[in-house]
Amino acid sequence: PLHLAERMQRLGTETAFEVLVRARALEAKGRDVVHLEIGEPDFDTPGNVIDAAVGALRGGFTHYGPSAGLPKLREAIANDVGRFRNIQVSPDEVVVVPGGKPIIFYCMLALANEGDEVIYPNPGFPIYESMINFSGARAVPIPLREERQFRLDVNELASLITPRTRVIILNSPANPTGGVLDEQDIHDIISVIGDRNIMVLSDEIYSRLIFEGQHFSPLSIPEFRERTILLDGFSKTYAMTGWRLGFGVMRPDLAAHIARLMTNSNSCTASFTQMAGVEALTGDQSSVTRMCEAFRERRDLMVDGLNRIKGFRCLRPKGAFYVFPNIQGTGWTSQKLANALLDEAGVACLSGTAFGSYGEGYIRFSVANSPENIQKALDRIEQWVNTHV
Ligand code: PLP
């Protein structure tokens, strides 16, 4: 028998990848499926970024680099993060890692002891809960509710903080809800934390995909700077999911410890990929604006379409590229509805419960697909609902 370590039982998963496999299996049998399950831009990586990677490969960026990232990229990230949030950021606060996800993993390993508590959004990105549990800490969900446009309730947050709370995870704009925390929300959260020694892991991977208002980060609050860890990356902003390039911004002493975890696991992030990252940040930004505009139009198409379908009620998210309709009016549970839409209507989506127990009553559609495909999905859902709800 396989003697698996006990910790493996605490490891969760990201259902999107499993649904994608199921959808592909249906396609292999000749079925047509509209893919609204996976959270990645359908756009290709901008050409200037690809050219930079090819140039870097030819130019010898094929060797090991420093664990914390190439100095040139750390500097470009420090400048970009600082400019976007109107603050000064130093390169020694930056750690480059393969994607945004490793920052979650490494921060849990570096900051949470067995028995410590980590508060995380629910419904939220499923990797938070998985990584907290894996680290041995206790995962404490903070519910996000539709009545508050899926912004957390600070009174509820206050009631969840204990002397064992070490980290609070925030995600704005959020996956799966598209909810956005505004400046006041962030200030309220910071004041509830007060002078406790609690770190905030602020996952801002969708910060450039915002449709209303302005992005605000706890990193911009000077007295909270030392307790903020920013997570961001290239996957969503520059349509670079497959490149595996992300970063954290944090106090330099913690950044050095995260770099030690890198030394022990990845050695470094791929060197030519990092050079492409420099071009992404310093080159032409018009593709970012173009993609954001496209996601806004698709969001509107999807939200308006869903709100015309019996049993669906959908808020208009302010950021990211997901919509998270309330489906309680259909009389179906989330998982059953998501399965039926894939198997019977040919529309792949995710059950709200894939994002935690508070996701019951909702399903998630990614709108990172063409307007034609989104319309096709809406037509199929409507037709299916007319005979099953
Ligand atoms: N954080 C959130 C909220 C996400 O939705 C995702 C990707 O889906 C990530 C982090 C991870 O991004 P990456 O692909 O760069 O690891």
TrEMBL record:
InterPro entries: Aminotransferase_I/II_large (IPR004839), AspAT/PAT-like (IPR050596), NHTrfase_class1_PyrdxlP-BS (IPR004838), PyrdxlP-dep_Trfase (IPR015424), PyrdxlP-dep_Trfase_major (IPR015421), PyrdxlP-dep_Trfase_small (IPR015422). The keyword Transferase applies. Residues 32-381 form the Aminotransferase class I/classII large domain. The keyword Coiled coil does not apply. PANTHER family: ASPARTATE AMINOTRANSFERASE. Belongs to the class-I pyridoxal-phosphate-dependent aminotransferase family. This is Aminotransferase.
